[in-house]
Amino acid sequence: MLLVFGAAVLILLPAGPSGAAEPLWTESPGLAAPPELARLNNVMNELAERLKPALAQVRVKRAVEARTEGAEPFGGPEERRSSGSGFVIRQDGYLVTNAHVVTGAERIQVKLSDGRRFEARLVGQDDRVDLALIKIDATGLPVAALGDSNRLRVGEFVLALGHPFGLEQTVSFGIVSRKGAPLMVAAPGFDFIQTDAAVNPGNSGGPLVNMAGEVVGVNSMAARNGSIGFAIPVNLIKGLLPQLAEKGKVEWGWLGVSIAEVGDEDLAKYNLKEPRGVLIRQVVAGQPADQAGMKANDVIMAVDGAPVEEPRDLQRIIASTPVGKIVKLSVMREGKETE
After folding, report:
1. Which of 1-10, 276-285, 300-309 is least confident?
2. Would the CA dihedral through 165, 167, 169, 170 be positive or negative?
3. d(Cα 136, Cα 93) in Å, to the nearest integer?
4. Which of 188, 223, 247 is the last residue in one of the domains?
5. Are 119 and 90 found together in one domain?
6. Which domain holds residue 107?
7. Per-residue model confidence as pLDDT tens digits over 44-68
8. Are residues 101 and 168 in the same domain?
9. Could you tell me if residue 43 is inside a domain?
């Protein structure tokens, strides 16, 4: 028998430091979080999983005119794409999002959490509060339950869900920083929910939810760095959705007056006991206030029994009142209360 042996090669490695190498990091020995924090962590995880099926990404295609010569060979419109968030409110395909997400859209596409894509149609929108209702042809969809934003408390934990920057679903955690945050530029007279939960571009239209998993607001806008977010209160939305579904728009109530805040300097002039109510500066001829007999220098104290402390109270109440509805105003005129 012929045996062939290969040559053996011995490689000598450079000598290193004696003993085991010291690790570059330290690992935890598996410490447990305090029970209270562990429970909170579990609640948030469960909420995120429970709400995920009702969340949607809203993709929009818009046509815009070419801004530079040569951008389009025949001067036609360019195509611009953007995305936001939304959530299902009814099993047969109704979703809520922001008006600014879908404004000017030539095409709206909805991507559900299970990956399905649907063409959507715009049912209605209102730019004043940045709300839109869209519809897809689907049935049996999981929905997000609407809660009661009036019961929210400052300091309460909330989650903001959405698709920031066109990414997959994300969840950010924070608290209610303020209730009744006025945004006079966006929606005069209406109060938004202020939160420190991160609301980034693309989160617009997503839900703000409480620890019970109820939608308490719709994420609408944020500071440039995302450190402060604002959400439309869900109770305001509940009053507007029926009009959007039926008419495609919201018809806001209107008095036809110019108003001002009642200051300390007005107390003696108008024979008032305290600086509250709304002062009527001017009444527009032929408008509802004029037809009801209101006059300049009247002070509105209440609407249908609801107290009016300042101008934005009156703006909010009147704007939310259906067109054609008769309301009773409590008015101070020359120091005497009248209706």
Report:
1. 1-10
2. negative
3. 5
4. 247
5. yes
6. 53-62+80-136
7. 888 889 999 999 999 999 876 555 5
8. no
9. no
176's tokens: 């209610």
CA 183 to each of CA 62, 68, 132, 255, 316: distance values in angstroms, whole numbers, following the listed order: 27, 36, 18, 21, 12
Same domain flag for 330 and 272:
yes
Mean pLDDT taken over the chain: 83
Whether 226 and 296 share a structural domain: no
Looking at the structure, do residues 128 and 167 belong to the same domain, yes or no?
no
How many domains does the chain contain in total? 3
Catalytic residues: 100, 130, 204
Q: Convert the chain into a string of H (helix), E (strand) and C (coil).
A: CCCCCCCCCCCCCCCCCCCCCCCCCCCCCCCCCCHHHHHHHHHHHHHHHHHHHHEEEEEEEEEEECCCCCCCCCCCEEEEEEEEEEEEEECCCEEEECHHHHCCCCEEEEEECCCCEEEEEEEEEECCCCEEEEEECCCCCCCCCECCHHHCCCCCEEEEEECHHHCCCEEEEEEEEEEEEECCCCCCCCEEEEECCCCCCCCCCCEEECCCCCEEEEEEEECCCCCCEEEEEHHHHHHHHHHHHHHCCCCCCCCCEEEEECCHHHCCCCCCCCCCCEEEEEECCCCHHHHCCCCCCCEEEEECCEECCCHHHHHHHHHHCCCCCCCCEEEEECCEEEC
Confidence class of residue 10 from pLDDT cuts 50, 70 and 90? very low
166 and 200 share one domain: yes
Check whether residue 58 and residue 102 sit in a common domain. yes
Q: How many residues does the chain have?
A: 339
Is 236 in the same domain as 284?
A: no
Asked whether residue 8 is assigned to any structural domain, the reply reads: no
Q: Let me know if residue 109 belongs to a domain.
A: yes
